[in-house]
């Protein structure tokens, strides 16, 4: 039988390994400009460090040593969940039309925009939108059935010219694989002066905590909203060019056509500083055209 010291050292090494794995997991989940989740991640990791601190050093208290061994071996609270595919549809079908709430933001808009229509927003059918980008056209098919208020906002901004002459300011090439666009200031903090609620796939979950610690796969070709926490959707969106494990906290509202994916692939091939930053290859949006 191993000595107390050996058992304690083994428990320490296992916990350190799990903390490292959790840190990598959280890095990959790095929110697309999320701030609210960071506090939660820090609290979780901080709690783990506190548990480790109780048992470190030369303390020979076997009860404490057994306690941490049981936590790591049996409960394994730091093990990352296996990512699951996003569901195909909302948890419950919507009526033919819905009302949307767009709350004015205290922050100044990156570019002036009028609020979208709020009543009788359709929940059926699709809308085709073409982004004329540096490398060629990127056509998005927006799905009203999944996230009608998101589609309504995006179409409104596009028709107002909000996205014209903007640059996609962020490319990630490790862990998650997205091109983030929609901020006229290109700072990552800009928005239209209003925000709106989360839709699909957040509708599948009962609480923000459940959403944040779930793990789903955003498939190649997905179009989703970036945000800074629950209910903070604005104008920024991201285009997924490879499977990306993320919490289901980002409104999915469309897909990218094959030609558009080739354009984004060329941007991604150029990389970004530190695998997360402004793309080295240009990714500017000249105009956005709405059809249908």
UniProtKB/TrEMBL annotation:
UniProt keywords, alphabetically: Isomerase, Membrane, Rotamase, Transmembrane, Transmembrane helix
InterPro entries for the chain: Cyclophilin-like_dom_sf, Cyclophilin-type_PPIase_dom, Cyclophilin_A-like
Protein's UniProt keywords contain Membrane: yes
Disordered: region residues: 1-29, 68-93
Record SUPFAM superfamilies: Cyclophilin-like
Pfam families linked: Pro_isomerase
EC number: 5.2.1.8
Bias type Basic and acidic residues, positions: 1-26
An example Gene Ontology molecular-function term: peptidyl-prolyl cis-trans isomerase activity
Record field: catalytic activity: [protein]-peptidylproline (omega=180) = [protein]-peptidylproline (omega=0)
Domain PPIase cyclophilin-type: 136-290
Enzyme class: isomerase
Transmembrane residue ranges: 32-54
Comp. bias regions, Acidic residues: 68-82
Family: Belongs to the cyclophilin-type PPIase family.
Protein task: PPIases accelerate the folding of proteins. It catalyzes the cis-trans isomerization of proline imidic peptide bonds in oligopeptides.
PANTHER family: PEPTIDYL-PROLYL CIS-TRANS ISOMERASE B-RELATED, PEPTIDYL-PROLYL CIS-TRANS ISOMERASE-RELATED
Protein name in the entry: Peptidyl-prolyl cis-trans isomerase
Annotated organism of origin: Hoyosella subflava (strain DSM 45089 / JCM 17490 / NBRC 109087 / DQS3-9A1)
Lineage, broadest ranks: Bacteria, Bacillati, Actinomycetota, Actinomycetes, Mycobacteriales
């Amino acid at each position: 039988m191993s000595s107390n010291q050996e058992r304690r050292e083994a428990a320490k090494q296992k916990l350190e390994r799990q903390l490292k794995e959790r840190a990598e997991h959280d890095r990959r989940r790095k929110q697309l400009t999320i701030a609210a989740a960071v506090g939660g991640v820090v609290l979780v990791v901080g709690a783990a460090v506190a548990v480790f601190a109780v048992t470190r050093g030369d303390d020979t208290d076997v009860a404490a040593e057994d306690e941490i061994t049981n936590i790591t071996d049996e409960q394994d609270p730091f093990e990352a969940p296996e990512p699951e595919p996003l569901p195909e549809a909302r948890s419950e079908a919507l009526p033919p039309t819905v009302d949307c709430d767009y709350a004015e933001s205290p922050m100044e808009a990156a570019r002036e925009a009028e609020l979208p229509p709020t009543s009788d927003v359709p929940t059926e059918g699709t809308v085709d939108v073409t982004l004329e980008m540096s490398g060629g056209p990127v056509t998005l098919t927006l799905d009203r059935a999944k996230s009608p208020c998101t589609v309504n906002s995006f179409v409104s901004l596009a028709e107002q010219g909000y996205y014209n002459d903007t640059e996609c300011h962020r490319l990630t090439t490790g862990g998650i694989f997205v091109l983030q666009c929609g901020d006229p200031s290109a700072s990552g903090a800009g928005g239209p002066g209003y925000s709106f609620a989360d839709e699909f796939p957040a509708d599948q979950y009962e609480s923000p905590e459940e959403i944040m610690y779930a793990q789903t796969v955003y498939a190649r070709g997905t179009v989703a909203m970036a945000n800074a926490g629950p209910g903070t959707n604005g104008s920024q969106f991201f285009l997924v060019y490879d499977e990306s494990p993320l919490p289901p906290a980002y409104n999915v509202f469309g897909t990218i056509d094959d030609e558009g994916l080739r354009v984004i692939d060329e941007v991604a091939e150029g990389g970004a500083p530190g695998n997360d930053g402004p793309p080295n290859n240009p990714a500017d949006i000249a105009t956005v055209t709405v059809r249908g």
